[in-house]
Amino acid sequence: MFYRRRLATIAQIWQERPSETAAQLHSRMNAAVRAVVRMGIYVGAKVYFVHEGYQGMVDGGDNIKEATWESVSSMLQMGGTVIGSARCKDFRTREGRLKAAHNLVQRGITNLCVIGGDGSLTGANLFREEWSGLLAELVQQGLIDEEASQKYSALHIVGMVGSIDNDFCGTDMTIGTDSALHRIIEVVDAIMTTAQSHQRTFVLEVMGRHCGYLALVSALACGADWVLIPEMPPEDGWEEKMCQKLSATRSRGSRLNIIIVAEGAIDRHGKAITSSIVKDLVVQRLGFDTRVTILGHVQRGGTPSAFDRILASRMGVEAVLALLETTANTAACVVSLCGNQSVRLPLMECVQMTQEVQKAMDGKRFEEAVRLRGRCVSYALFSNFNVAVLNVGAPAAGMNAAVRSAVRVGISEGHKMFAVSDGFEGFYKGQIKEIKWADVGGWTGQGGSLLGTKRTLPAKHIDKIAEQMRKYNINALLMIGGFEAILGIMELLAARGTYEELCVPMVMVPATVSNNVPGSDLSIGADTALNAITDTCDRIKQSASGTKRRVFIIETMGGYCGYLASVGGLAAGADAAYIFEEPFDIRDLQSNVEHLTEKMKTGIQRGLVLRNENSNENYTTDFIYQLYSEEGKGVFDCRKNVLGHMQQGGAPSPFDRNFGTKIAAKAMQWITKKLNESYRKGRVFANTEDSACLLGMRRRAMVFQPVVQLKDETDFVHRIPKEQWWLKLRPLMKILAKYKTSYDISDSGQLEHVVLRRPKESEAMAAI
Prior knowledge:
Elements: E1 6-11, H1 30-42, E2 46-50, H2 53-59, E3 64-66, H3 94-106, E4 111-116, H4 118-140, H5 146-151, E5 156-161, H6 177-198, E6 201-206, H7 213-222, E7 226-228, H8 238-251, E8 257-262, H9 275-286, E9 290-294, H10 306-324, E10 333-338, E11 341-346, H11 347-362, H12 366-373, E12 386-392, H13 399-412, E13 416-420, H14 423-429, E14 432-434, H15 462-472, E15 476-481, H16 483-494, E16 506-510, H17 526-543, E17 550-556, H18 563-572, E18 576-578, H19 586-601, E19 606-612, H20 621-631, E20 637-642, H21 654-678, E21 679-680, E22 683-684, E23 692-698, E24 701-706, E25 714-715, E26 720-721, H22 730-736, E27 766-767
């Protein structure tokens, strides 16, 4: 049984190529380490740290130490890895692996959780395959007896991928990638101000020797003019095309150009394209004042983002559950992310596919390399339609990125794009104008809603809205917003029987910090809000570093939806999070106070409690603050903070910029497809259920869902979905805060193959 097992967690770098001169430290492993340790202790395992990766396993001694609950406290906000990571030439030899096996057997360790890249995981799998032979050799040398060999006869391996390059096949995102994007975007946003002032061109070099993910996504997130990545070398003559693009951008009135270059960028002949080559090219051909910035290891450092903390925590718990279910015949697996769901994949299948990408690139089969990296989607295009885009409800960071993406994708597909100011209020007032390519330049990194947005619903003004649609000949609508947007599209749909002008394709993209839109696991703006909460909680806890025993009560936004409080609490390491969806009473509050009191007596100095703004009309933030202050007298004191609208403001996070860009592009492609299908006898007519959809992230895929089918899933009184996926994360937050609670494993990942089947199209959903 698992409670008799012993588990070791390793943050390890395995050097694969002699040309790499330094170990690459994946800088956001601490949340994963914390989750493995605390979940391991929760299920009754004895957990060990292996310091300095495989080198520590080979050397043994104090490098392998038992971990305690308190040893991973205050780790979430720290960059790097507290247990160290290093190259290990010794482990590449059988003699070194023999020493490592001996050190593990001495401590009764037969379960390894390895956090690293494909090289580290390959080394772990080789170690597992050799295990029985290594034990036999140890018996032969008299270092262990036959009884120990039989007792520890099987080694179980589960991997988690830690890599800022996001270059591992089988997972949508690796631990550390989102934080690296945060560092890049912070630099780009800062550089853009000076570039604008001095009319300069900046060439930014980002990491990615063999994978262009960071370069490509950061280019999307900042609206770069040109990007160069290793998997997609530019065609011959790219130099002239790039210069023409930069010149055209300047001629439209832009005062700056941004070019992003992956460090491994090459041309079609395998020749390196460096940032200095690009700079010289721009200076010589265009005469633009050009500067080069090489970000280097800045991308590896810094505080981990909220996304990385949540991802690493989820993956760490899933890794322990995977070890819990292993048998002697279970293949080594790696815990991965597919859409919004954790999955388990055979480790070596993922490694082999990752290596296939490199082989394709080495053989100059670049199209194959791109195909192996991910899927492509194409649609038949039908041009010359008028498409209107509007923001509805409260502003959310990332809305502008979505509008920019929709406008430019729409124009590229031949449509005439119209912008509606101030939501439905502006719609019925006629605040509609054509929006062109250049009009949305520089929108990606700006917070709020540049189009303007209001909470006004269309029902009272349907006649005027229909009149405006007739006046401007609007053939399709794209709505970007929160709960008001889904109410609005439902009201428009209900009026189709009266107003034929409304019989056009309509699609809604969720954008709200509250993440309370039915039909989607995630909304544009929620990640930025989570980062604001996490950053603030980090600073608040740090403010008490010179004091002793202090508990902070933090109020978050969200209306009746507890997403921000719950997931923010998981990311910030909260001790409790009070939400509407999980009713609580005075006994729960008292229990939480007693729990914190016990923790403080064990040496923990700071506590953190989050409360959703509408969690309970009687147990207000002031009430909870006063209760904790009174009951904690003599043990800890209290402070409270209401975060308010700071959660709604600020520049969008890289995730929200990227998510907004991609989801709006998919929405426009769907609109084009529906326009093509519904164009009959010289006009567009669409009145079926599937012509008015919400595009949302559902588990593993982006899914189009008819809004009429979402009515049964919605609590309209409290403006929340009836079922919310993140509620399953709440026990995880409690476990990591040392509460005794149950954990539902019914939704845990199952071992699958790398080539995953996607949801099929049906009458209700069309996944893309």
